[in-house]
Amino acid sequence: MRLSSTTSLALVGLAGSALAHVGPTSRRKTMGFGPVHPHAKFHTSPASFAKASVFTSDPYDIARSFVTELLQDQLSEDNEFALRKDSYTDSATGVTHVYFRQMVNGLEVADGDISVNVKGGTVISYGDSFYRGYAPGVTLMDEPTTPGPHAEFCGLLQGQLVERLTLLREHAAVANQVTMSGAQLTDEPYERMQRLFRWNCDHLRTPHELVERGFGKTSDIFDPRGALLQFMIAATPDDAVVADILNNHDEIIAGMTSWFEPQLVGDNNAVLVEMINNVPDTVSPVKAKAVYIQLPDGDKTMLIQAWRFEVEMQDNWYEAIISHQVPHRILSVVDWASDAPIPSEPEQRQPARYHVFPFGVNDPSEGGRTLAKENFDPLASPLGWHVIPVSNDPLSSNLKKKGQYSNYTTTFGNNVFAHENWEGQNGWLHNYRPDGGDDLIFNYPYDPKITDKSDSLDEAKKYINVTITQLFYTSNLVHDLYYRYGFDEVAGNFQQHNFGRGGEEGDAVIANAQDGSGFNNANFMTPPDGQNGRCRMYLWNTANPYRDGDLEAGIVIHELSHGLSIRLTGGPANSGCLGWGESGGMGEGWGDFLATVIRSKALYSDYPMGAWAANQAGGIRNYPYSLNESVNPSTYKTLDKPQYWGVHAIGEVWAEILWVVAQRLITKHGFTESLFPPLPLEDGTIPLGDFYRVPEFIATDVPKPLVPKHGNSLIVQLVLNGMKLQQCRPSFFDARDAIIQADQVLTGGENFCDLWLGFAEKGLGIDAAVQGRTPWGGGVRTDGFNVPAVCRSEDTPEPSPYPEPEPEEPGDDEPEDDWPWLHI
């Protein structure tokens, strides 16, 4: 389906006439969609395979043999697979996570992934999205007869916009009555859908129009510049850049210089990556690589030759796949930057005076500011938070060095570089950082005053030392905490130096405090392992004086958790696994859930998200996270509602489901006041103390994983272990099954029924199902409240009339959007 430019403009105009609400700040443009892969599945009960040919216990050989047998006669010299170098063994569980990428005619299949989980010489689960079919010829293939993912996405969304607008017109007759009651006649779902349409679909026809104007007709199919420039037209938020490209297309292409760098795809597969400079509206050279991508064509799937680009912009970091052939169509796009959405306009109230708070105090409204000590974990941060080996220090040439280490007295260290970014620019290396002096004491006053609105920003800037110190402190503690639960070097964590423990280094978190590129927001950019993650925290103009997102731990934890979930899902070298759909929504939900678990107390309470920063008692979610269905009625089927079409709203439902599951484990195992595991003894061993127990089911000759004793620490461990097990682009079903299998690996399935009962309580039981998913999250879902037969008791509700499907059967993951709204 083709949409004309006039159709797009008409929809934009309709939004302006039908809606009067304007948010408090501008929104960051972001794009996200891709093809649906019905054949992609996560299997927790893999069929046995012939191991007679495997005379080794090496997990990589076992995984390779398994995949070879799985693919059987599909393999050939032109259709093979490569072992990815980011495969690793989890030292805590003994599970080896092995990642394979499909190679056809020497090119990667960008969305062709098989992840195999091996333990004790056995394949315990695997995810599979490999292309099933014979390798095409090396010449360019025919285009699919069905619309591409971009056109399908925009066509479906246009239909929903028309339906929504019709409903608005039908209700317009009661507008006066509604206004008299004191309410505003607004429609948030329509606003969000309209923004999504504008961001993603304004330039759907542009590739065809450029060809009609003569651009690209004689372009070299081996030259990526034309395809890249076509993507930039769609990606840039700057209309002046678009106009410049359209008016000076050939001149801009001629000025785009490039060079080649080798890149290892797998164990024996090296490709050349083209680095392209002088690309409009980018902040670094663009990486370009020829790939295949799988596109549906009726009831089959075909391979299309395309360019894969990594495009870093001021506010976005895209992984985009654009067709080789003209017109250059966008086939898939993932934004590695994840937003904290913009809240609705809050009621103004007189703020109290706040101080920097210790870890565990979510925001200044919960407790006073204390002078906390550097509390680094010697396992996670062996050198502490302020020391970097000179060889990994980006500032080492400008420092006085002691031996081979740079010892900083500022908020600059191996895990985090924290600093102000008032200008909102990408430069960060020499930005201002507070200096604690030789004694490393970062102690600054914090007493913001009510001011005239014109002076509010200057008042907030007075306390930048407090802000940066808090961001540095929180970020380092989150680094150390996640490390102890398995987010270590081989798993892709963020460190400048990896202490010889494996993984890619040189990727500490760049943490911008009071970032000047916006208000009422936060975001995190997660490139593959070995490239710096970037966290941008903003001021919130929701109160006078302004409130600082850096001082609300839940917001910081949420953003840092994007880096966690993206690096753990599908392997640390693959940042495209949580880009849209239910998978993208869970990327948001994990951040909410972990932030809420970290702030929770032994005495149960409901928790809103972002309440302090947004100056809204109920937070910036639709509901607080709660066990009370009258407070939070969310179930799996809630995703069908239009206001839940988007990754942030989808994430709310996932976080609520995990919150309910967590409370079941807490009821069973109790609660620990501190989620931090005990520090190692002098001999390096971890004391069990009151934190860990050792399961008895594991044979004595197998390394025994440490099992947290308490429900809140156990659920954190299971959630992180589940991220490692699940496949790239998981659905709710896949992530649920991965968590249940994580418990099987860790405890022998001790909590099998507790987990199933928790998921089923919120509609994600074994009979849950979905039909007709749309790219932004629509579809028709069926809540499933049934659990496996072994978990049923007299107290269990009557089972659903639906049959019990295999865990991997209820549905496949489909692409959805990523827009900022109502949530962190």
TrEMBL record:
Residues 1-20 form the signal peptide. Its EC number is 3.4.24.-. Transmembrane segments: none annotated. Residues 777-824 are annotated as: Disordered. The active site is at residue 559. It is an enzyme of class 3 (hydrolase). Its cofactor is Zn(2+). Its main location: secreted. Residues 805-824 have a biased composition (Acidic residues). It holds the Pfam family Peptidase_M36. Zn(2+) binds at residues 339, 558, 562, 588. Residues 80-130 form the FTP domain. Belongs to the peptidase M36 family. This is Extracellular metalloproteinase. It comes from Lactarius akahatsu. The lineage of its organism: Eukaryota, Fungi, Dikarya, Basidiomycota, Agaricomycotina.
